């Protein structure tokens, strides 16, 4: 595998960066007033304005040439057609098959993948309908009013984020809670106040071997059986989502109440697989399919649009631009939508578990920086917390602003503007302030005392993307998730890494289990004495406990 950093395209970008680095966004806009109109892309319901980036048309040309050099076009096809692009696990990464519309076919290695996907979706929709209508009851004949999803990582973050995002569409009087952490406070807090007769547990785990999930599921089972007084209650109150039927049966969940997915769906790409079951129960099968249609719209755009007009390609290339040519370490994601409060956390797994790699797919060390650190909070809250650093700090923090034209609903308020307009005025103002700032002359001209002027200077030149959509709906949410899935893919392709494995999370899991005997008794850890610092901490823990 050739090293992308040795390509002429990479060198051209490095040389170009040296020119752009000295230019301010004020200047770029003054020199090219048409850029605001030109540097936009619309894909389905999503509209991206990338004019406030430290790029010119030439930059975009050089970046798309880099994408060509990295073979992005062929890689996209390889992903969509089910090639085993997850090389370290010898698997396809075929999450795009999860949103193939009914009637379309996709056969991979002789397997009717589209048929399998729709069979599971139909089974989920049927089950959801029965729970929502009250046809499916608990053990004592009462209807289900609360669904508790037990899962972690990709088996939690996707449905938890989407349930929060689409809470306004939960129309069957069924609410969801999400338990993930092995900290007992999580499950105890989530079980608190629940009526066992009306609670359904969805145990979600791709492997069905994850410590946190199995432990929480055992606690939940015991809680239920103790209260309903009969082991037989489990089959009415527990269903499973997994790829591992054997382990599901071992746990005691009726395989008839299991919803499957496949090893070609990565955990962090599984919201639109059966892992979305809790969400589907809350919002219904139809709304879930609208979400899939939103995913699909972006899939098609990604697969067919020319790179210079391709939203995920441009956003991925801009990520590479700042990471590798400006030395940026992080990307802030700032949704101006309270209901997207879990979106940054969801993106953290999607992006950082995917692209936090220091070897390439062929095992050679990477030479460039990889893996942006994603973080964020909804605006306007973030404005009153960490935006100070974004505006006047010494670091470059590119940011994605996400907003919607319409709220789901809004109350009447006395004043010149409604709450949603106030929210969005803030979003637009922030991107403008970040880009253009305020010069010392402008501040002095306002009569500011000289000694205060340097404190009030807003340097500007801080790059942002703005993503605008009509309304936060199941469809737009699907599109947003697909957009970032493909951004990750574009970056991973440029860096030459396998974005679909996650070996780095394994060692800590093994070491934790090795340490358990030392925490619970005076026995030495199974894997031998740990390092001196850890051994001392364990001793101290035992003294305190
Ligand atoms: O530990 C990381 C991880 O494997 C994630 O990739 C995954 O989403 C999560 O754990 C949960 O795994 P599972 O769905 O198999 O329980």
Structure description:
With 545 residues, the protein is of the alpha/beta class. It has helices spanning 8-20, 25-31, 35-38, 57-69, 72-80, 113-133, 157-165, 184-191, 211-228, 234-237, 245-251, 277-283, 285-304, 311-325, 343-355, 387-392, 419-436, 440-445, 453-456, 474-495, 506-520, 532-544, and strands at residues 40-43, 46-49, 107-108, 111-112, 146-150, 175-179, 199-204, 238-242, 258-260, 330-335, 373-375, 399-406, 464-471. The strands form three sheets. The chain has a six-stranded mixed beta sheet with strand order 1-2-13-12-10-11, sandwiched between helices. A five-stranded parallel beta sheet has the order 6-5-7-8-9, with helices on both faces. A two-stranded antiparallel ribbon has the order 3-4. Helix 7 links the parallel strand 5 (146-150) and strand 6. The radius of gyration is 25 Å and the shape is globular. Residues 152-155, 205-207, 210, 213, 267-268, 353, 502, 505 line the site of 6-O-phosphono-beta-D-fructofuranose (F6P). The site of 6-O-phosphono-beta-D-fructofuranose has 14 residues, from loops.
């Amino acid at each position: 595998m050739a090293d992308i950093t040795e390509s002429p395209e990479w060198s051209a970008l490095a040389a170009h960066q040296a020119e752009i680095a000295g230019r301010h966004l004020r200047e770029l806009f003054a020199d090219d007033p048409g850029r605001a109109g030109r540097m936009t892309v619309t894909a389905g319901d999503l509209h991206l304005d990338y004019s406030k980036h430290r790029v010119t048309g030439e930059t975009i040309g050089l970046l798309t040439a880099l994408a060509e050099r990295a073979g992005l076009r062929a890689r996209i096809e390889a992903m969509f057609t089910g090639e085993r692009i997850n090389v370290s696990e010898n698997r396809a990464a075929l999450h795009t098959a999860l949103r193939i519309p009914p009637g379309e076919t996709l056969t991979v290695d002789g397997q009717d993948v589209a048929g399998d996907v729709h069979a599971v979706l139909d089974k989920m929709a049927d089950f959801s309908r029965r729970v929502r209508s009250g046809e499916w009851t608990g053990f004592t004949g009462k209807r289900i009013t609360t669904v508790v999803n037990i899962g972690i990582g990709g088996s939690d973050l996707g449905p938890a984020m989407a349930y929060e995002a689409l809470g306004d569409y939960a129309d069957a009087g069924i609410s969801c809670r999400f338990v993930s952490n092995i900290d007992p406070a999580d499950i105890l807090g989530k079980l608190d106040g629940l009526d066992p007769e009306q609670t359904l547990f969805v145990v979600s785990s791709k492997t069905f071997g994850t410590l946190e999930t199995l432990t929480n599921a055992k606690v939940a089972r015991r809680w239920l059986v103790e209260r309903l007084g009969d082991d037989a209650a489990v089959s009415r109150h527990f269903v499973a989502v997994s790829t591992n039927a054997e382990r599901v049966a071992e746990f005691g969940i009726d395989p008839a109440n299991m919803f499957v997915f496949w090893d070609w769906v990565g955990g962090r790409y599984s919201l639109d697989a059966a892992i979305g079951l809790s969400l589907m129960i809350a919002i219904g099968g139809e709304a879930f399919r609208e979400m899939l249609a939103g995913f699909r719209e972006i899939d098609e755009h990604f697969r067919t649009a020319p790179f210079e007009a391709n939203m995920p390609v441009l956003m991925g290339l801009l990520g590479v631009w700042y990471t590798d040519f400006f030395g940026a370490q992080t990307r802030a994601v700032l949704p101006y939508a309270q209901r997207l409060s879990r979106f940054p956390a969801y993106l953290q797994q999607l992006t950082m578990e995917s692209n936090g790699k220091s070897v390439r797919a062929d095992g050679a060390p990477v030479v460039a920086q990889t893996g942006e650190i994603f973080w964020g909070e909804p605006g306007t809250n973030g404005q009153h917390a960490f935006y100070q650093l974004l505006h006047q700090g010494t670091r470059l923090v590119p940011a994605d602003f996400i907003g919607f034209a319409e709220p789901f609903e809004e109350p009447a308020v006395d004043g010149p503007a409604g709450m949603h307009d106030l929210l969005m005025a803030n979003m637009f103002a922030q991107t403008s302030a970040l880009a253009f700032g305020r010069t010392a002359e402008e501040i002095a001209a306002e009569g500011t005392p000289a000694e205060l002027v340097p404190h009030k200077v807003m340097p500007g030149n801080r790059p942002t993307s703005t993503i605008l959509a009509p309304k936060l709906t199941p469809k737009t949410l699907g599109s947003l998730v697909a957009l970032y899935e493909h951004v990750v893919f574009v970056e991973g392709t440029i860096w030459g890494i396998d974005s679909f494995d996650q070996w780095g999370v394994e060692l800590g899991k093994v070491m934790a289990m090795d340490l358990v005997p030392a925490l619970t008794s005076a026995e030495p850890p199974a894997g031998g004495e740990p390092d001196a610092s850890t051994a001392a901490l364990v001793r101290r823990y035992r003294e305190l406990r």
